[in-house]
C-alpha cells in the first residue's frame, strides 16, 4: 500500500489544543511537534479585481476557462535547504500578466495548478472546487429525447456554484485577529455555529502563522453566513467532582480531565469528516509529495466536504484545505450522481427516487439544471402533463 | 436582613465596580473591543454613580484612579453644580482642587476645553479654573504650549489677565515687543529658524514644518526641550527619521520603562538592558520606600499570551504591566516565583505569543507552596477556557476551606460590556490596574473588591486616602 493512499481523513498526526471561540466562530488549533522543513508555502497576493483562469494552459479563450475573484495563490516549494527555491515567490515567476481595463484590473492565471522547478502554484480551494464541478459534468452519453442537444456536445457545462467570502461571516475577521496561535500550530479547524466549515493545515508552523489570516479570503458555503448570525458557539463547561480530590496532585489530575472533556467535545465536531469515506483523485506528483483532491461520499443526507491535500510518501499530511458543501449543493450533486448511476435515463432515475418522471423533471429544473432538458419537456412538466 | 443593610451592600458593590473600572479604563480601544464601546460604557458608569452616590463619587478622586477618570469625575462634578449643604460643598471643592492640581497640565487644559465645549459655566467652574491659573508656576510657558486651550479657558470664564498674556493670546502683535522672554522667542521663531529650539517641543514641531527643517536635524536640536513622555512617544519614529533619541528613564514609571524595553528590537533591547534594569531598581526602591509591604511566599502568574500585545492605541500595555509587576515583586518579595504563560528562554526576550494557559501555572504555584498568588492577565483564558475557575472552586472547597492562599487577579484591560475588568472566576478578586505601581493600591482595595468590606469601611478608607493625598 502506498503512503499516498487516501481513504479516510486521518488527523492522528496532529495534536488538538482546546478551542477558542468568539460569537458563532470556534477555532480548534491543530499542532504538530517537530514539523519538517522540506515543503514550504508562500503566498502570491493579487492586486487584480478579477481573474481569468485558463484551464488547459491555452491562451485566453472563453471556452476553456473561468472568471473569478481570486485574492491569492499558494506557491509550494519542496526540497531540503538550498535545493529549495525561495519561499517567497515573485509574482513574475509563476503568475500571468495583468490586463488593465477601464473597469479595473483583470489578472490572468494560466492553469489552476502549475508546476515549475520544484515549485507548484495552486489556487487554493479553486482546485478542489473544480474537481467538484467536474463531477458528472460529461452528461448523458445516450441520446435520450428529453435532453437538449447542446448537452451531448458540451456536457453540463457551464456548471456554476455560489459561495460566500469568509469576510462576510459575522465576526470571523475579529475571531481570526484575536486568536492566540500556538507555537507549534500548523493548522486549524474552523467551525461556524458548531458545524465544521473548513480544515486548513500546512506543513510548517511559520507558514501557518503567515497564512492564518488568509482564511478570511477563502470561500465558504452560503449557509455558514446564516449560522454565523444565528448560532453562538457552545460553552463547554465541565464540572469537576470535588469529593475525589484530596491533594494538589489530585487537582493536577483534575486539570487533565478538563482537557479531556474539551478534546472529546471537539472530536464530536470533527467526527463527520473523520468518519467519512474519501473519494480521491491524484493530480500532481511533486517529488516525494502528491497533490490530490477529494470529495466525501455523496448521500442524500449528512454533511459533505470537498478538499485538496498534499501527502508525503510516508502517508503524513502536509497540506489540507476543505470546503463544506451547502445542503443545496449536496442535493444538486446527489441528483446528478443518481442520474449518472442510471445512465441519465429519466424513467429509471424517477423509479429510483420513487417519484414520477414529471416530478423528477421539475426537480431537475429546481436544482438549476433546467438547461439540460428540452424546453417543451419542461413546459409540459410545469403544466402538469406527462 | 433589613432593607437598609441590603441597599448599603448594593451601594458598596456599585462603588467597588466603579472604582475598579476607573483603575483600568481609559476610553481607548482594547484588543477584544472597539474604541467607542469603552468610552460609552465608562461614561454611563460615571453618570450612574454621580446621580446615586454623589459624595462617594467625589471621594473616588482620592482612590489613586487613573488620570483619564479623574478628569472625567471633575468634569461631571462641575457640570452637576455645587451641592447645597455648605460643608459638602467645601469638601467636594477641596477634592476637586487637589486632584486638578495633581493632573498633568495637558489633561487639565483638555478638561477646560471640554467644559467650554459643553457650555458648563457656573460660578464654581469659573472659580476652579481661576484657582488653577493662579496656582500655575509658569503661566507664560502654559500660554505658549497650550495656547489655544488657555485662550479658550480664559475667554470661557472671563478671566482678567493683568500681564502680557492678554496681548499674546488675544490682541494683534503688530509692532509689539514682548518683555516676557518666552513670548519674545515665540514671536521671533516665526521668522528665525534658530529660535524654535528654545520653545516647547510640540510648539516647535509645527514651526519646524513651516521652516522646512529636516526631521532628523530638528529632533537632534530640540531633544533637550522634550518631556519624558514626548521622548518615549517619539523614540521609534525618530530612529526611522535618522536620529537616535535617548529615553529618559529616570523620570518614568515602572510601566513606562517596561513599555520602552518591550518596544525595542531584541538587539537594541540587549544594548539598553542595563539602563532599564537600573531604572527598574531605582523606581522599585522608591515605590517600596513609600509603602513597604510584607507579601510572604508569592507566585505571580504573568500572562504573555498573544492578547497581551494590546490594541493599536495601547500597544503591548498588558504585557508591559505584567513585566513591570514582575520587576516590582522580584524586589519586594524575597520569596518570589514568576510563572509566565509562555515562559521565554531569556526574560529580556519576552514577547506576546501563544495561548493563555493559567490553570497549569496555578497548579505549579500550589506545588511550590505559594501563600499568595497574583495573576496579571486580561482575563481571556483559553487553554482551556474556564479551567482556572474549576480548579479554584475545587481547591477552595476541598484543600483550602479557610482561604489560607490568597489569590488576586490584576487586570490591565477594562471590559466595556460588564462595566469592569473581565473576571477569571467569581471566586477570584479582580482589580483593574493601569500601572504596576498600582499593585499596592490594588492590595489595599482587594478586601472591598472581594465584597467583604462594608460601605462605611470603604468610605473611611477613601477619606483616609484623601487626607494623605494618595499613596502615589
What is the helix fraction of residues of chain A, given as a range?
A: 25-40%
Overall 3D shape of chain B: globular
The succession of helices and strands of chain B, N to C, reads: HHHHHHHHHHHHHHHHEHEHEHEEEEHH
How large is the count of helical segments of chain B?
Answer: 21
Assembly context of the chains: heterodimer
Question: What percentage of amino acids of chain B are in beta strands?
Answer: 5-15%
Keywords:
heterodimer; A: 386 residues; nine-stranded antiparallel sheet; 11 helices; 19 strands; globular; B: 472 residues; Rossmann fold; five-stranded parallel sheet; 7 strands; 57% helix; 6% strand
What does this structure look like?
The complex is a heterodimer of chains A (386) and B (472). Chain A has 386 residues and is α+β, with helices and mostly antiparallel strands. Chain A has a domain at 15-133 and 163-238 and 268-325. Chain A is 29% helix and 27% strand. In chain A, the strands form 4 sheets. In chain A, strands 1, 2, 3, 13, 14, 16, 17, 18 and 19 form a 9-stranded antiparallel β-sheet that branches. A 4-stranded antiparallel β-sheet of chain A has the order 4-7-11-10, with no helix packed on it. In chain A, strands 6-5-9-8 form a 4-stranded mixed β-sheet, with no helix packed on it. The longest helix of chain A has 27 residues, at 248-274. Chain A is globular, with a radius of gyration of 23 Å. By secondary structure, chain B is an alpha/beta fold. Helices cover 57% and strands 6% of the residues of chain B. Chain B has 21 helices and 7 strands. Chain B has helices spanning 3-24, 35-52, 54-59, 67-80, 86-102, 105-117, 123-135, 139-145, 147-156, 165-170, 181-189, 201-210, 215-222, 228-241, 254-263, 266-290, 317-332, 359-368, 387-399, 438-449, 455-468, and strands spanning 298-302, 336-340, 372-376, 406-411, 414-415, 420-421, 429-432. In chain B, strand 1 (298-302), helix 17 and strand 2 form a beta-alpha-beta unit. In chain B, helix 2 (35-52) crosses helix 4 (67-80) and helix 6 crosses helix 9. The longest helix of chain B is centred in the middle third of the chain and has 25 residues, at 266-290. Chain A binds chain B through residues 17-18, 20-21, 29, 178-183, 235-240, 242-243, 245-248, 251-252, 254-255, 258-259, 261-262, and chain B through 31-32, 305-307, 342, 353-356, 359-360, 363, 366-367, 382-387, 390-391, 393-395, 397-399.
